Amino acid sequence: MTQGRCDGREWVTSFKISYSHDAFHWKYVNDAYDNHRLFEGNIDSCSVRHSYIDKPVIGRFLRFHTISWKGHPSMRVEILGCQPCKQPLALPPYAKTTASSESSPNKRNSPSISGTAQDSYLLTKGAWCAQKSDKQPWLQIDVGPPTILTAVSTKGLGEFRKKRWVTHFNISYANSTTGPWYNYSESGNDYSFTANTDKYTERRHYFASPFKARFIRFYPTKWKGKQPCMRAGVFGCPQNGICQKGYLRVAEDSPCVENIAYGRKSYVNNKRHFKRHVGEWSGSNQAQRAVDGDENQSIHHCTILDNFYVSRPFWMVDLGHSTPISGVVIVTWQGKNLKTNSPVKSSYYDYMRNLRKLTVYVSSEKRRSKKVEKIAKESNKCGYVTSVNEALFQRRIHIECMKPMNGRYLYIEAEGAEDRWSKVFSAVLCEVMAYS
């Protein structure tokens, strides 16, 4: 929309438009004949003229080139368009950042400016800095579930006396750390982004071709100072609705984060339906149901822990390597897919009502350890939930670790109530999800 100068007889009668993503490389809006389109402007100084672009263009910057005018080239402009999916993604504490190398910009290694990948968020006071010897530095951001990425933003090293920032960088993206990695390109060529000119000003780039990815890497190619230092942010479409398999929402309105237990090998320390005590850890389909990503609450899709053949029933998942763990979300059985008067349903409800407590442990102990006392130590305890006020029988149970935990194996122990006439108890785990 365009207007002239209402307090005088001045307006633009024709103009052309060019657009750019970086304010350096410009393209004109063309007409049907692939010539620079000449837009008709206003006929007076106050009325509004609507001009439509036949084929929408994507750009950050627009230039209006005045061609003819009345009195003097004077104009007011309002731009109408669409800019969906521009929300910030991968914000702490949910984001995970890694880098090719890390180095403090301060020789004395100031604790406030460590130069690690965790210092790379836009709102931090420091920045990520690569080692001076790093010939191919990169900073990687894990945005969580693969989603549409529309823009990136960069800054230099923050509140620190040294002047260090990245002036040019390239980008690649992938859905797995093992690849394949794709270089961001425009017009068939790898695109070089122009970054910052000082350490404080934020520079944002909108992609001409948004893409879907989980991981995005920044490759500094030129920089100010002895080493590349930068802060970075990613923008796009946040995951809406139900999280895809392998991810969870810790709270109803929180973003989707990685479920580090999904698809991992799981074990129980008893084999059900064998009329003998089995004192070993056994992997089975029954144990694996709790990490299959299926939150179906049918009992046939759940893992059952009970004390038929062991006094202390445990379920365990092997995370593959030592992993930070902040908490666990457990989806429990609520009687689904069994008839109301079913004796099986009644018996399971009775057994569940004998359940008193679920405790989560995190340990580096090997799964073949038969002595549960080695697992159930206070130092390994993440947290627990009890039957007080029916907390244990909610559909969704959130157990947040009382302190930051690290370990390869995550255990859940079921304990029975001592004041019930029957000492038999069961815990039905339909899905167990863990997050860092």
TrEMBL record:
Where does the record place the F5/8 type C domain? Answer: 1-82, 85-237
Q: Which Pfam families match?
A: F5_F8_type_C
Q: Which PROSITE patterns match?
A: FA58C_1, FA58C_2, FA58C_3
SUPFAM superfamilies recorded for this chain?
Galactose-binding domain-like
Among SMART domains, the record links this protein to: FA58C
Q: Supply the InterPro entries for this chain.
A: FA58C (IPR000421), Galactose-bd-like_sf (IPR008979)
- Region (Disordered): which ranges? 96-115
- Compositionally skewed regions (Polar residues) per UniProt: 97-115
Q: Which domain of life is it from?
A: Eukaryota
Under which name does UniProt file this protein?
DgyrCDS1858
Give the organism the record lists. Answer: Dimorphilus gyrociliatus
